[in-house]
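Morning!

This is the sequence you dropped in the shared folder:
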Amino acid sequence: MQRLMIVDGSDVVRKVGKKILSELGFLVSEAASARDAILRCETELPNIAIIDAGLDGALDLIANIRALPEGKSVRIYYCVVEADLKTMMAGKRAGANDFLLKPFDRKILTTIFTDKAIAA
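The structure's back. Tokens below.
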């Protein structure tokens, strides 16, 4: 089973994402801060991380995950509220693989993540 971590300061966003992605077969963990997320990653690295662009320290978190042993294998989605090129490029430079738009939409998450849940 693929491990997926949602890193977002909003309890609601994390709960909605966890519900949808758990139903797709992911083992979902949550972190409310960049600090909490990196501590969790040092213990058990997820296969996939969804990181909110609005989170304090989000770019540093991406870089810190990449610096971990096996950190380059994590698929990182930088979660943005709007398709702002400057924000997206900052995420890409930090090491994000791809982007997601907030708020989470069941149809989009299902389309993006259905095949990834069974890829392990």
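Headline: The helical segments are 11-23, 34-43, 58-67, 85-94, 106-117.

More detail when I'm at my desk.
O.
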